Amino acid sequence: MRIDIVSLFPEFVEQCAGFGVTGRARERGLLDLHGWNPRDWAEGNYRKVDDRTFGGGPGMVMLVEPLRRCLAALRQADPLPPRVVYLSPQGRPLDQARVRELAALPRLALLCGRYEGVDERLVQAEVDEEISIGDYVLSGGELAAAVVVDAVARLQEGALNDAGSASQDSFEDGLLDCPHYSHPVEHAYGTVPEVLRSGNHAAIARWRRQQALGRTWQRRPDLLAGRVLSKADQALLDEWRREQGRDAPGDAV
Asked: Which BP terms in the Gene Ontology apply to this protein (predicted)?
């Protein structure tokens, strides 16, 4: 998969993508990352890429022309047509389902805004979709782009040493992940649940499913809103709630 990053600080995303799973994906040739600085396509001695916003008010807006030229060069750099995504607070919230869709694309271009954002005319003419990583404001789109790169990189086949670990992650089936434990068994902070030490794989799978359902209901009830649980899942959740003594999300034990 090829990902192009359009940013005034492309080296930032480049550095973020040099570690862990993302770095391994690049080393294995699964991810091809390229940075593009629109300042290289700006004119004048100062390579101006922003100007004041019409209508008044604080802040600057990134100009159309440097970005247009940059995107034109980006498109010509590879025969594969990119899907251009603008990282923006006004975008569709990023979730695991959308990450899977993006990860399946052969080429992705991420446009990072700065200041008050990008001239709307450029967005309308050149951008395929807008994506937000959360309801908060960042200084620029670089952190959001790094999040997208990391999320899609780990889904490239061969990026993870254990391919099964991705399928067990939070949100993969619409639920939060279950709790996980390691050695030692006994610690001042508590003991590893007996079922996980039992060797009974069916019982372990049942426990993990129940914990995932219970955690989701307790911490992210919005993920279950409108979702029709199977009879087996509903029974597991009901049992978890009785054992925990919880009647509503957020209740204390």
From this structure: tRNA N1-guanine methylation
Kind plus residue range of the DSSP H or E element containing 50: strand 50-52
pTM, whole model, 2 decimals? 0.82
User: Is 169 part of the annotated catalytic residue set?
Assistant: yes
Q: Where would I find the H helices in the chain?
A: 10-16, 20-27, 64-76, 96-103, 120-126, 142-153, 164-167, 201-219, 231-244
Q: Which of 116, 172, 177, 233 is catalytic?
A: 116
With beta carbons less than 8 A apart as the criterion, state whether 24 and 14 touch.
no
Average pLDDT over residues 131-144: 93
C-beta of residue 49 within 8 angstroms of C-beta of residue 8 = yes
Token couple for 249? 């999300």
Q: Pick the catalytic residue from 2, 39, 83, 89.
A: 89
Domain over 170-244 is classified CATH 1.10.1270.20: yes
